[in-house]
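Example record

One chain of 293 residues, shown exactly as stored in the release files.
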Amino acid sequence: MVRINDFLEYLKSEKRYATNTLLSYRNDLNQYHAFCTRSGSDSMDFNFKSIRNWIVFLMENGYSPRSVHRKLTSLNTYCKFLIRIGELRMNPMERVLKPKLNKRVPSFIDEEKINHLLDYYDFGADYEGVRNRLIINLLYQTGMRRGELLALTEESIDLSGKSIKVTGKRNKQRIIPINDELKAELLHYLEVRDALENPEGTPSLLLTKRGQPMYPRLVYTIVNKYLNLISTLERKSPHVLRHTFATHLLNRGADLNAIKELLGHANLSATQVYTHNTFEKLKSIYKRAHPRA
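Predicted structure tokens for this chain:
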């Protein structure tokens, strides 16, 4: 049976999957392989019974239906790869029933709260304060993902054209417009950043105070810190600002297809999840305003 490494190399070189996605696939497949080994098999079992038993095992050990779905997607993609190269005749995943998903509505921050943070909170005039405010503003005003934010370079920014080139999943690029406020903030950040020592000569736009490229955990910590000041949401991650970006655009009448392009979604169904938040707002307005509500 073909090794997992061969499959991951195929996804990387031909499908151009992101590094984090490849890591998830590796972990999921290694986990399934370990389960098969504990069940007495010498290798991965690609049959309906083994996969069904794995699903039961995952659910009994506290995995959410959404997590199980992701793991089954990894296994399904791997089976398709094995069929493609002639190592497997039929895909057992076609018979597998996945756990039912609870509909999850994206969490977002109210406009009033995010505006209060950006307009009135003192982030500080030192490098970290300027950088941290820029991070919050970039995530909120562009809707980019954390990985896309970290991949930005100075060349990604077109200040004269007031736009940012973002490289998303599978290396797909998109152009996101920026306003005068964000343009001025980027200019100010670059001035402050140039005063840092840059020992590695990194092209990364966002740096630590020691002049090194920022890393995912640091971005999460920064966003979580500031969202804690304005929100009681259980999750206060960079992705919440992406949800906030999309929800606020939709609430103000933006076209769903335009939001899809700005977010870099592959299909409209991924963007339509935000319409639920808009409908909830309409219901709230209706209940407050209609005399018979």
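Notes: The chain has a mean pLDDT of 90.
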